[in-house]
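step=encode ok
step=design start
structure_in=
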């Protein structure tokens, strides 16, 4: 039985690791249900090509990625201004910005993990284009790209897609990360994330995948059981400055992690994915290191990581698993998606039977 505190350098907070709690008794309902068989195209899906959305607008008959302005945005440039002051010590301001949706593929039943590496690379280029375009607006200070995957995180439409919030404010986690990174660079002359990468590569136990210019790892300070980062080895504040070779390598690392996620329980793996890109507020962000973070809510197929007293009440995460153990689980898995492996096995069996 061990208790340990691990410092999270990007968030400047302590993570409590108590791995012996992973197998404690728990009475609850199964979160992961039997996997549904989805069609390639769904007539009632408002994200499939050519279909009508809730707003009455019709999707283009797209055959690759598809980007459109969200019909129900949480921010917009038409926010009422001026807003009535709340009085006393309180403050308010309009939440202005642009909200968009990015469909990964016209196929309703093909998740990000199942795309070909070339398709993942093309999606990275779309994310880059959106970051550059939206970040050029003088009113936009931050472009947040994220995917919520799985019913357990509240997704209402299974068609693989992500969202983009381009806002007049910087989301708090990115704001903290930018400040911490800038302060560390000023104090030491070193990029903070580069020191994290150096520590992870020297240890080696938590690295899931690595190629010439990209790396996927489960960090020493992980808060969730299967929390992983995918990052370039060279520091870039955003996708905007990636070379073609770096994009290809990053696509390979991203797919390698996602395939292992699905292979873990031979089921679609739920997560919240966020692209950590520097604010577009005109500040000096040389110390900011772009990366993608995955926050999976499940510790086991039937067990959520609930946020309770220590997290919500106390403000510090309590991790019920050891990062080294979970990284070893992921690293040991096949790099071939279980659906493709099953299809290949069935095809080989059919050929053998027909001989």
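sequence_out=
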């Amino acid at each position: 039985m061990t208790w340990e505190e691990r410092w999270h350098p990007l968030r400047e907070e302590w993570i409590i690791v108590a791995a012996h709690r992973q197998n404690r008794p728990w009475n609850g309902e199964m979160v992961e249900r039997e996997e549904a068989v989805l069609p390639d195209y769904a007539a009632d899906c408002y994200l499939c090509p050519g279909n009508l959305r809730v707003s009455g607008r019709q999707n283009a008959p797209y055959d690759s990625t598809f980007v459109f302005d969200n019909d129900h945005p949480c921010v917009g440039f038409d926010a009422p201004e001026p807003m009535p002051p709340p009085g006393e010590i309180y403050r308010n301001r309009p939440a202005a910005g642009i909200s968009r949706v990015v469909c990964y593929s016209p196929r309703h039943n093909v998740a990000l993990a199942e795309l070909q590496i070339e398709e993942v690379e093309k999606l990275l280029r779309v994310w880059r284009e959106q970051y550059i375009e939206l970040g050029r607006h003088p009113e936009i200070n931050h472009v947040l790209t994220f995917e919520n995957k799985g019913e357990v995180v509240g997704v209402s439409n299974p068609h693989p897609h992500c969202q983009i919030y381009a806002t007049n404010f910087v989301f708090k986690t990115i704001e903290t990360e930018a400040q911490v990174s800038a302060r560390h660079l000023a104090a030491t002359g070193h990029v903070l994330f580069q020191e994290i990468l150096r520590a992870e590569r020297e240890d080696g136990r938590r690295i899931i995948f690595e190629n010439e210019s990209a790396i996927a790892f489960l960090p020493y300070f992980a808060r969730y059981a299967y929390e992983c980062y995918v990052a370039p080895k060279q520091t870039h504040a955003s996708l905007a400055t990636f070379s073609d070779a770096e994009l290809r390598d990053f696509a390979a690392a991203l797919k390698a992690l996602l395939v292992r996620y699905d292979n873990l329980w031979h089921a679609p793996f739920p997560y919240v994915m966020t692209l950590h890109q520097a604010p577009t507020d005109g500040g000096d962000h040389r110390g900011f290191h772009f990366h993608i973070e995955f926050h999976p809510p499940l510790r086991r197929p039937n067990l959520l990581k609930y946020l309770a007293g220590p997290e919500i009440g106390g403000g510090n995460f309590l991790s019920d698993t050891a990062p080294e153990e979970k990284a070893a689980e992921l690293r040991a898995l096949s790099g071939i998606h279980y659906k493709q492996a099953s299809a290949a096995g069935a095809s080989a069996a059919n050929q053998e039977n027909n001989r």
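step=design ok
step=annotate ok -> Confidence is low (pLDDT under 50) at residues 24-34.
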